[in-house]
Amino acid sequence: MITQVRPARPVRIGVLVPLTRPGWVEAGRHLLAGLELAAAEVNDAGGIGGRPLELLVRDTAADPQRATAAVEELAELGVAALAGEYHSVVARAAAARADALRVPFLCSSAVLDALTDQPTEWVARLPPPQSHGWRVYADFLLTAGHRRIAVASEPSVYWAAGTRILHDDLAPRGGTVIELDARALTPEAVCDRLVGRRATALLLLTGFPEPAVPIVRSARRDPRLADLMIGAPAGQPEFARWAASLGDDGTAVPFLRYLPERLGPLGARVDRALGERLGAAPSFVAFEGYDTIAVLADVLRAHGTDRADIAAAWPRVAVEGTRGLIRFSRTPGISVWQWDRAPVRVVDRDPEEPGRFRVRHAE
Question: Is the pTM of this model over 0.85?
Fold first, then answer.
């Protein structure tokens, strides 16, 4: 009699990513590439105690309700933990539902400070909170000599929070934030307001490609704004589609990037592997995806697959990621377990070589 060996039951991780519009599809694709690469490496190394790691991927399409439904479905399917999401408002909805259902959630790439309304033990996050990153950006603006800063924004909790952070940080230091409604004003009217208010910098707190691309094109072609600096703190210029849409007009637009100036050996290896998987240079979002699975795999190996044990392990994490040693702690004013050592740089695309990023400022 031949005894058949049953395949080991997989350890399941629920993955939330924006893969269709109106989500930022390119960001979702990079995030998923990092998650999948790390999972493949975990399985090549024997999995989790001999059990394969399986990613159950759900497309959020930047829809908070869709993300909430996905969390509920994945919880029913028995995932050990949740991972991913790029859009802050969507991650907030997912985190709230994960907290309510007591499913551990490691947020890969969303920065909104108030990821949950109340402190929770169930949620941890890799990227720096918005208040930290955007204050670094405010320091860059002041160092570069900008005191009258316009923000062209759309209605969103995320954009409103960014505007408030900039105002609170810049006003005591002599800076002025001029708010422009990117939905109500045409690109030409935005330019008129910039001239009238004597702004020296314009920050795009808007969606991409609309209305960001028309605003950039209009400002670049307005001779009255020849000395205007255009910025995009949220990172729109990180992705290849920005460069493809705007060409030379998309260079010299500083944004926040969560990568060190130089990668270590692990980061360099992952950079090459991600480039092969994506067929393009990986964004910092792809590294966030990889680090997410690296952390979860370490926790699963050390503490098992019980959800409560995973959540209890956040403060004991010490994992060498692609961008440094990852540990979680409690940060004042932040309701989730937070990696507080994520690298923060202000970079832009070099006008002389648009595929190269220049470091303009570091914390």
Answer: yes
